[in-house]
Amino acid sequence: MLAALDFCVEADGRQLLRDLRFQARPGVPLVIIGESGAGKSTLARALLGMAPGRGSGRLYAGGIELVGADQAALRRWRGRCAALVPQAVHDALNPQHTLLEQVAAPLRRHLGLRRGAAALAAADLLASLGLEPGLQRRYPAQCSGGQLQRALLAAALAPSPALLVLDEPTSALDPAAAALVLARLRAEAARRQLVVVTHDLDLARALDGDVLVLYGGCAVETGPAAAVLE
To answer: Which terminus of the chain, N or C, has fewer Cβ atoms within 10 Å?
Structure first.
């Protein structure tokens, strides 16, 4: 279950999120839309227990009450059970390791795969997202934003988390790569709870799930994408 009840986030004397109430439907993508500063990324990070401030109310994900959860519980939740693909792709990867190494790392940490098996599985994941062997051995500084975005998606998918949260997952992609990622996200939505933050209403419509509209940190509308976007 993914749900919020009177959930708030306050930081530096400002209310970033206020009295959020929603419940995601299992197997249905939840797309969060709204203007810049509406609180979309704050909510995305809160679902990993990483809200930039103090949370109150209730926020449930995967049977865990994230508000007030201790750090040990949150460490168990992140990565193996829940994964985030952040918007700032250039800051999200380690510059000293190749894309292949960084996708293999969660396979070794969370699933216990040996180095060779993790590398093979990581290579398959990257290839499925259009990143061929020549690109897989590049360092982040040698890659485009779109390539980094797909590598981050591969790393998030690697341990097969129950909750996958993506912040603007197609913003750096060309049309062909965006179509590939969209098809993958629609397939993943049948396997895990998918939460997507985006400004792209075409992406929200194509995912054909539920839409949560944020404005000024508040939820102002929620419902099936076709009805809300109409």
So the answer is: C
Closest C-alpha to 40, from 8, 17, 59, 69: 17
Laid out side by side, the sheet with 210-215 consists of 82-85, 163-167, 193-197, 30-33, 210-215, 218-224
Q: What does each C-alpha distance from 22 to 64, 105, 131, 222 come to in angstroms?
A: 16, 34, 36, 8
Pairing label, strands 14-23, 2-11? antiparallel
Burial string for 159-186 (b: 16+ CB within 10 Å, else e) reads bbbbbbbbbbbbbbbeeebbebbbebbe
- Ranges of beta strands (E only) in the chain are 2-11, 14-23, 30-33, 54-61, 64-65, 82-85, 163-167, 193-197, 210-215, 218-224
CA distance 151 to 168: 14
Spell out the residues 6+ positions from residue 183 whose beta carbon is closer than 8 angstroms to its own. Answer: none
Q: Read off the pLDDT of residues 154-186 as tens digits, 9 standing for 90 and up.
A: 999 999 999 999 999 998 899 999 999 999 999
Residue 102 one-letter amino acid: Q
As a whole number of angstroms, the distance between CA 47 and CA 131 comes to 28
Cβ neighbors of 169 (< 8 A, separation 6 or more) are 85, 149, 153, 181, 185, 196, 198
Average pLDDT over residues 63-75: 90
